[in-house]
């Protein structure tokens, strides 16, 4: 079982100044077994196909895969609940119901799905997103296109290199954002 080290810190605001200190410099991050990492990639690809086929199929597919249902609508997003893929916890939300082409955001916690494993299996090459310099939890995003969906995978950029989020949307949306970002130095998208 592989582990990597994080350097978590805590901050406190005291009379107008922000003070931060290292909490525990040896917090291990457990890497998910290879079979679980492969299952996460299969889930991502399956849901990308469902997203492209329409909101109804995507919702049905997510409901079938969700182990802890806690559906709620917040700011137009439908939060579907959580599922586990081995030791990896996945939380999903779908974009507004009235949207012509909906998006799906998945957040990952628990065991680590490692960036190099994902890059190797999905043949990811180009970085399509990086966090702003002042982001307290910086990420780096790689994208690929499959079956009508653009899939952007966001990885921790502080040392663990674990998958933190996935955003799926119509291919045309990401392609337009990438074209705009080439002409202006902006960050095309965030996990959501």
Structure description:
It contains four helices and twelve strands. It is of the alpha+beta class and 192 residues long. The protein has one domain. Strands 5-6-7-8-12-11-10-9 form an eight-stranded antiparallel β-sheet. Strands 1-4 form a two-stranded antiparallel ribbon. The protein has a two-stranded antiparallel ribbon with strand order 2-3. The radius of gyration is 17 Å and the shape is globular.
Give a brief rundown of this model.
Residues 1-25 form the signal peptide. This protein is an alpha+beta fold and 192 residues long. Helix content is 27%, strand content 41%.
Question: Which structural traits does this protein have?
Answer:
192 residues, alpha+beta, 8-stranded antiparallel beta sheet, two-stranded antiparallel sheet, 12 strands, 41% strand, disordered N terminus, signal
Q: What string, H for helix and E for strand, traces the elements in order?
A: EEEEHHEEEEHEEEEH
**Biggest sheet strand line-up:** 5-6-7-8-12-11-10-9
Shape: globular
What structural category characterises the helix and strand content? alpha+beta
Total DSSP helices: 4
The residue ranges in which pLDDT falls below 50 over 5 or more consecutive positions are 1-26
The number of strands is 12
Query: How would you characterize the largest beta sheet?
Result: 8 strands, antiparallel
Provide the residue-averaged pLDDT: 81
Radius of gyration over C-alpha positions, nearest whole angstrom: 17 Å
Distance between the ends: 31 Å
The fraction of residues in strands falls at 35-45%
Instruction: Give the domain tally.
Output: 1
**Portion of residues in helices?**
25-40%
Oligomer: single chain
